[in-house]
Amino acid sequence: IIPVFLVHRPANNIPYATVEEELVGEFVKYSVRDGKEVNFLRRDSEAGQKCCTFQHWVYEKTSGSLLVTDLQGVGMKLTDVGIATLAKGYKGFKGNCSISFIEQFRALHQCNKYCEMLGLKALRTTHQKQRKATSVKSKSLPNSSAINKTLPKKAREPRDFISSEH
């Protein structure tokens, strides 16, 4: 992320301005300010994948409390990034993007080879975890007391079973 410098201009109506290095080349938005995953048209580029991994790394290092978003620039020179933090901020830092971006990122992020190289943990939403737990519960067999309550008394009596396998 290229630095931005604050310049004092005392003779001007607006006494302060910011200045940064000129970026020459194709300007690309790798992730957008609305918190969506890396631009789908650019996610296969090396710069796009690294931006996505950087977001994932920051997210993991801050325990999901902070997300760098609005990654854009020329090649790997990025400018004017946004920051999303949880409602109370992260270590006193207030972001300039909605906290919903954090949840959107977690839901949409797809790990790539750089995430794997850094050993980052795969991100899963609470909804996905609950859905998986529900599907596992529905696949498990009910216990015998549940069967006994639903079957008529005659069907509950022990029987001799003949195995079809020889």
Features:
15% strand, disordered C terminus, 166 residues, Protein kinase-like fold, alpha+beta, 7 strands, 3-stranded antiparallel beta sheet
- Tell me the total number of β-strands: 7
Q: Topology as H/E string?
A: EEEHEEEEHHHHH
Q: What fold name goes in the CATH topology slot of the domain at 26-118?
A: Protein kinase-like fold
Number of helices: 6
What is the CATH architecture descriptor of the domain at 26-118? Alpha-Beta Barrel
Rounded to the nearest angstrom, the radius of gyration is 27 Å
Percentage of residues in helical conformation: 25-40%
Tertiary shape: globular
Instruction: Write down the CATH class of the domain at 26-118.
Output: Alpha Beta
Into which percentage range does the β-strand content fall? 15-25%
Oligomer: single chain
Alpha-carbon distance between the termini?
Answer: 71 Å
Biggest sheet, open or closed, and with what strands and sense? 3 strands, antiparallel
Order of adjacent strands in the largest pleated sheet: 3-5-6
Mean pLDDT: 74
Which structural class is indicated by helix and strand composition? alpha+beta
Function: Protein kinase that recognizes phosphorylation sites in which the surrounding peptides have an alpha-helical conformation. Regulates cardiac development and cardiomyocyte differentiation by negatively regulating Wnt/beta-catenin signaling.
Enzyme class: transferase
Family: Belongs to the protein kinase superfamily. Alpha-type protein kinase family. ALPK subfamily.
Catalytic activity: L-threonyl-[protein] + ATP = O-phospho-L-threonyl-[protein] + ADP + H(+); L-seryl-[protein] + ATP = O-phospho-L-seryl-[protein] + ADP + H(+)
